[in-house]
Design a protein that fits this description.
alpha/beta, 2 domains, 7-stranded mixed β-sheet, two-stranded antiparallel ribbon, 10 helices, hydrolase, magnesium ion binding, MtnX-like HAD-IB family phosphatase, HAD_hydro_PyrdxlP_Pase-like
């Protein structure tokens, strides 16, 4: 068994803004009505995202520029490096797409991180997701089942920590050894009586990991 894994959601957790909002605000105002339908339970998550991602209608160069303009938590690069220095493996677990995640990681020179997400690709001025129903992590609702991923990692590591910010993250939170919750996830987990550590940013995450002995103080 490997020592420990640190797993983080991306949109709204590492990034300060969900990529789908970037698209809706710049290129797809109709997406606001779709967002309401999605939140009302009238659309599956994967259907909402697929529709938004395929409604950009911009050259790839512009899409990449928009991706690189997405703000992230300023403490993320140093926290990831600190985890790795202390023997932890880092995973990004996202129900979005790996297409934009890899661009962000490259921008900040974040290396040796495993991205587990829906496969994304550029085609005809839009982004598309390649969803494989036969994949062991497949979810009909999200494309990727975060709970299955965390449970699988639990068979490989002594300890698995997870950080997230919204409803999809409430499911893997059940299986993580330590869950860090931002924003809406705090109320969701509290309502479900699932234990968690409330955090505002990755500096809070780092402080807790140091306090609990997983990392040496810097």
């Amino acid at each position: 068994m490997k020592k420990w894994a640190f797993v983080s959601d991306f949109d709204g957790t590492i990034s300060n803004k969900d990529f789908y909002w970037v698209i809706i605000e710049k290129y797809f105002p109709e997406g606001e009505e779709l967002f309401k339908k999605w939140k009302a339970g009238q659309m599956e998550d994967i259907d909402f995202l697929s529709t938004v991602f395929s409604s950009i209608n911009q050259d790839e160069e512009q899409i990449i520029k928009d991706i690189l303009d997405i703000p992230i938590d300023e403490y993320v690069p140093s926290l990831i490096h600190h985890v790795q220095q202390n023997g932890g493996d880092v995973y990004i677990l996202s129900a979005g797409t790996d297409y934009y995640i890899h661009h962000i990681l490259q921008k900040y020179d974040i290396q040796n991180v495993t991205v587990l997400s829906n496969e994304g690709y550029y085609h005809n001025q839009n982004l598309h997701m390649n969803i494989n129903p036969e994949h062991r992590h497949y979810s009909e609702r999200y494309g990727i089942d975060k709970s299955k991923v965390i449970q699988e990692l639990q068979t490989e590591y002594d300890t698995v920590h997870f950080v997230g910010d919204s409803e999809p993250d409430s499911h893997p939170a059940v299986y993580a050894d330590l869950t860090f919750a931002k924003d809406a996830l705090q109320d969701i987990l509290e309502a479900k009586n699932i234990s968690f550590n409330p955090v505002n940013d990755f500096r809070d995450v780092e402080d807790t990991l140091i306090q609990k002995g997983f990392m040496a103080d810097v």
